[in-house]
Amino acid sequence: MIITGDALIGGKAVKGTGAGVRAYNPALSQVIEPEFRTVDASQIDQACRLADEAFDTFRALSDDKRAAFLETIGEQIMALGDVLIERVMEETSLPRARVEGERGRTVGQLKLFANLLREGSWHDVRFDKALPDRTPPRPDLRMRMIGLGPVAVFAASNFPLAFSVAGGDTASALAAGCPVVLKAHFAHPGTSELVGRAVVKAVEICGLPAGVFSLLTGVGNELGIELVRHPAIKAVGFTGSRGGGMALVAAAAARPVPIPVYAEMSSINPVFLLPQALKNRAEDIATGFAASLTMGVGQLCTNPGLVLAIDGPDLQRFTTAASQALVGGAACSMLSPGIAGNFARGVNQLAEHAEVTTLALAPQAEGKGAPALFVSSAASFLSQHALQEEIFGPASLVVVCKDVAELRQVAEKLEGQLTATLMMDEGDLEAAQSLLPVLERKVGRILANGYPTGVEVCSAMVHGGPFPSTSDGRTTSVGTGAITRFLRPVCYQNLSQGLLPEVLRDNGTATWLRREGELTRN
């Protein structure tokens, strides 16, 4: 398949009219053809209007037909073969094994949502039958969930497949019956076009309205703001920086009709090293921590950027072993020059901070990221908010506390996080119990004796958390729960059987339903 540099609007390839951008090979420091032009306001409007026109038809599809559409997208992605794998590697410098694994995850989550649609619980059907003899009488009431409407999705920089064109936000929005207008990420535009063409092909194969999916190309904040402001857009899915996410939140809130923005933004994912675990296995924990920190050159939203532990010789054992594992680490190409530049600035700021000591700092190189480990006191961390800022890359800060009470004090002051990890043994149960209520308020996923990198795509997963890890801590962007972001409830009162949606009829298609408040399976 030839990459043309086109946007894809309503099933057709179109050229943007604005500023151009080319992909960049970070490993070779070379630009890659072709040029992708930025779409203009009229092209954004066309994509959004076509999505709006497609909405009622698309959401009215049976669960099985929409599930088949998701599966067809996965089949078309796989049909791209090595063309896709090689383009991703070229645009990101990610190794083949990582790219192939991410492709599998992308196809897997499309299948996950297809299975959810066929299983049917997502409708959240509720029946409260009429009670005409009651005083006052109760009407017949039935409820189901429906899609919100067209969704604007912003592809992420660090996952060119799994959080991009056909990634989790797109999969969950399409599963909900919502057309998607997607802004491709400028760091991997060729990858985005290839996957975008696979989605368009699936739309054609399944005989769906062309406006079900459009891909917009280009650079500049105005493109994203224009998309979010469009009146046809009813929700936003975003993975990226805190600044970018908050700009979209502000634009969405300022609309005449505000809309929700589900933005995954910033997290430093604290790891608590509890005393007994540290005494028993400090070196083993350090080895696992170093591997987690450097996975993917640290360019993962669940990277362990903060370690908290009680002062003493066991913590010294951990920091010595972790430093030895990290200091010899090679500088590796990061996903883009922008990410590499931000990482270098963050590392330099910590290295020069008056209340921070450098434990390990591997030789840095332009455009690359090398491991870095720092240490500071709990008192400094509590008084210096800058020490809580995320450094997107293989860098972490160890915060030394006096006792469990100070560990809890630091936990109380943390911002919202995607994850928190408890490294604990049997003797740490009391300390863990004291931290757990705080962590439940602060994070979306709590781990014991593991590492936060690696997000399982399954029904129980929560990849979200309180602000600023996400803009709405009630939701997740991974797992079947992600579909709820793009749904809303509708209640039908005293409608005849002929007017009711099929899933709400007396002998309807609901697989699961709540009848008089009791959950049953048909």
UniProtKB/TrEMBL annotation:
Gene3D superfamilies, per the entry: Aldehyde Dehydrogenase, Chain A, domain 1, Aldehyde Dehydrogenase, Chain A, domain 2
CDD domains listed in its UniProt record: ALDH_KGSADH (cd07129)
A Pfam family this chain is assigned to: Aldedh
Domain Aldehyde dehydrogenase per the UniProt entry, residue ranges: 21-465
UniProtKB keywords: Oxidoreductase
Record carries keyword Chloroplast: no
Protein name: Aldehyde dehydrogenase (NADP(+))
Organism: Duganella dendranthematis
